[in-house]
Here is the input.
Amino acid sequence: MTYSELSSQIFQKQSYLCVGLDTDPRKIPTHLLTEKDPVLAFNKAIIDATADFAVAYKPNIAFYEAQGPRGWESLQRTLECIPADCFTIADAKRGDIGNTSDLYARTFFEPTAAGLSFDSVTVAPYMGHDSVTPFLAYEGKWVILLALTSNPGSADFQRQAVDDQALFETIIETAQTWAGPDKLMFVVGATQAKELGRIRALAPKNFLLVPGVGAQGGSLADVSRYGLTADGGLLVNASRSILYASTGTDFTQQARAEAKRMQQEMKRYLGEM
Amino acid sequence: MTYSELSSQIFQKQSYLCVGLDTDPRKIPTHLLTEKDPVLAFNKAIIDATADFAVAYKPNIAFYEAQGPRGWESLQRTLECIPADCFTIADAKRGDIGNTSDLYARTFFEPTAAGLSFDSVTVAPYMGHDSVTPFLAYEGKWVILLALTSNPGSADFQRQAVDDQALFETIIETAQTWAGPDKLMFVVGATQAKELGRIRALAPKNFLLVPGVGAQGGSLADVSRYGLTADGGLLVNASRSILYASTGTDFTQQARAEAKRMQQEMKRYLGEM
Here is the structure.
């Protein structure tokens, strides 16, 4: 999906909601456990219930990998359930030396490799340019680079002072020499809203993928105030608050209601721009 | 495997060789391609040929993931072929927020999850303490944290000056507040031998996993001079130089010969201590 297509989707749906498909088999409503593939049945139901209000879906790969080979099969089938007008993110946080990152890129981008064709992959920056550029070689595919994450450990190294700025700022500046905003996004946690203004100044056109609204405590209002651009420029992720809005037979209705509630709030912020 | 067991293995075998099972299906000798699982057949042959000279095996997970579900099955079966007295490393370079790193730890450590039970996992440090500590919760299992990697991109961020030292030095110091040398190793590229002395001073007891000898150009002599300790303290990885020593029907003999050549050199360095 291109930059302008993603931007169009946001204004068309009046939403920058990304639904995180962090599906934990231990939390699936019990009535689905008799399905042949409960994870797939759950994901399909969530996608169908939320697709009117979401512009992106983001399976976190750890949840599938922890199920072994059948988890990878659930992931393949889940990806097939996501409508073509939605942006897809493999939240994998990969990164290795060049020839190995090339294999990770094949895994998530090249359907003939692992049966997957995501629009984007999250990548860890620590190993530098040759760990990231193999992902950029794919036409129409994106890298979403970790910058300032939502977790407590983000304070350990990401905020270390390098010259007169924080390490995450150096990473945002350096990565922009590798690719333009048409192929490069950054992960910025919603719990870090007070830094969003500075990050937006460093990366005025790049989309930001923002996890941490909801269960982790970030504020959608703050994120939107500092992060929205004329092109949209934001993908705000919610996982647990949508997936597990109910654990009963009404889980699709409750997931849809929560996705709609977030979309309505986003619509307001888009209107105020 | 415990610290003292690993140390014992090194002195018993007179070797600190780790064989990197970075098996690329496109490079497997053609006579194996008729096997039901050519990757497994190749790995089993390499393991059988080199186990007298190696103390550790390290599959890089990217090579298996790029094959989809059947790649994970090859990985499961490969792990079963590694002798119990060898240390096993899942070279996965994972790391995510706490509850997600916990799933990655389950994947590689908990046999009932993904059918895998490695002794250790390589972990990326960028997301800080709560991305690493879930791996440390497993009794007898290890974290191998990226410090100074072997690739050109290691210069981009790992060497950034933080106060009066490099970022990788800050990471080595900080990580030692999370775990002792009985559960924590560091990755240091063999191409970075001139820093090994400083790293050894910062982490006098920790094992160092050293990739980059062979195809990437690092020197075993330099690595051994600066890295060896009274407990061994080193695992030096070789992948391509052993796996693809020959691409013909004599690949096992040539792999064995190359592993033996490295072991003999290591024996000399252990004797010179």
User: Anything to note?
Assistant: The two ends of chain B are 25 Å apart (CA to CA).
